Structure formats: structure tokens, C-alpha cells
Amino acid sequence: MSDSIWLEIVTPTGIALRKQVADVTAPSVSGEFGVMAGHVPLLAALRTGIVSYHEAGKEHRHAVAHGFVEVLGDKALLLTERFMNRDDVDVVKVRERLKEVDAELDRWQGDMTDPKRKLLIEEEQWLATQLDLIGDPPLPIVREDTRFLAAHAEAPPVQEMIEGQTPDASLTDHKKGGGSAFPDDT
């Protein structure tokens, strides 16, 4: 068994990256995941974010948009709508456009499921990812992911979201000063 894997990132315009790497980390709709040689087969929905990998002991990072990732054998194939290298980010244009998109979304008065709103959210995510790629991420803005959601999905009730913000005291032992989540064996 090899101690490396082939990483291939493909966009609608062709192969963006093809390299033999030590490992890969990618963003999925279920969270970030890592892949090394010998990984079990995997098929996941890719979300907009940063893909990183190690080659000759050095970490490399690239921005990708939503898509899919398949890991089979010692190959990781990412199919994505967009791909960007760090050196290709135009910081001034990205920040300017992000400000415009955020303002438009903040003023949004239309239907929350309007395709135009969904496209704005996806553009916002892509712009924020480009800034993250250069090491200067914007403040986090919590908006729903627009891909892979059921058409009938609804936000949780406001009361449930408020309750979720209060820490559950039973999960930590604040009286003992150690902050351990585990009870004493005594």
C-alpha cells in the first residue's frame, strides 16, 4: 500500500489540480474531513471552503466551491464548480463585492427561497472563502447553506434557538474548579 494518494480537482473547465499528496482535508456539508492513503471509500457533498493537502512536508491550500468528492482506493476526486489559488485572489475586488452582497442580503425583503437570494448567499460564501484563503477571513456571517437542503426545510422556532445558546450546566462541574465534564468516581 502506498503512503500517498492522488488528489484530482476538476471544474467545468477541466482539471484544476492533479498531484500525488500525503493527505487531503476538505469541507463537506457534514463538516471538514481528512483523507490519507488507505482511506475507506467515501462519497460526500462538498461545500464551499478550503481544501488543503501536504506535499513534500509543505501544506498547500486552495478555495473550492460546492460539488462532490469521491475517495476510492488511493485517489481523491473533487468535482467542484470553482477553484482558486491564493495568488489569484484580488483582495480589493473581493472585499468590495462582499460588502455589496452583504448589504443586498441585509436589505432583502423578498421570499427567503427566491433563487436570486440563494445565488447571493452562494456568492457571499465564495467571496468569504477567497479571503480565508489569503489568511484574512471576514467576520463570520451565519446564513443557511443553499445546496443539499430539502425544499421544505424550515428554521427552528425562535425559542429553541434561544435555549440552544444557554450552556447546559449539567455538562460541566463548575463547583470543583476543574471544569471537568466527567463526574467524580467517589
Concise synopsis of the structure shown:
The protein has 186 residues and is of the alpha+beta class. The protein has helices at residues 91-106, 115-133, 158-163, and strands at residues 5-11, 14-21, 23-28, 31-36, 42-46, 49-55, 58-64, 67-72, 75-80, 83-85.
Global Rg = 20 Å
Helix content: 10-25%
| Strands, total number | 10
What share of residues are in beta strands?
Answer: 25-35%
Give the spatial strand order of the biggest sheet.
2-1-9-8-5
SS-based class: alpha+beta
Q: What is the typical, i.e. mean, pLDDT?
A: 83
Write the layout of secondary structure elements.
Elements: E1 5-11, E2 14-21, E3 23-28, E4 31-36, E5 42-46, E6 49-55, E7 58-64, E8 67-72, E9 75-80, E10 83-85, H1 91-106, H2 115-133, H3 158-163
Helix pairs in contact: 1-2
